[in-house]
Predict the structure.
Amino acid sequence: VQLVESGGGQVQAGGSLRLSCVVSGTTISINAMGWYRQAPGKERELVAVISSGGYTYYADSVKGRFTISRDNAKNTLGLQMNNLKPEDTAVYYCASKRGYSTVVVRRAAEYDDWGQGTSVTVSS
């Protein structure tokens, strides 16, 4: 299984970015998927997750600004990030939990596969 993130970069506060995670070796339409992030000096934290059935969960800090989506035809997970803030600066990781899950999976330890991350920097 391989997960490859892209779309990170540098943007000013208030701007937007769209992250993509292309997945191979497993079918994301079945799996629970998620986006996590890790800022310098901080622990990895949940950003947004989506269950196999399409239920979503967002961290309070991104609710209303970020949208997680899944393109089953392209086996790609997306994260649309709007109204970015300096505190959104982090490396963003895509994660996949193999097997069908009727509920959202929030614990990072439950995910089986991770990408290498893509860096997002938001300047004020």
Q: What stands out?
A: The mean pLDDT is 96. The first strand starts at residue 2 and ends at 6.
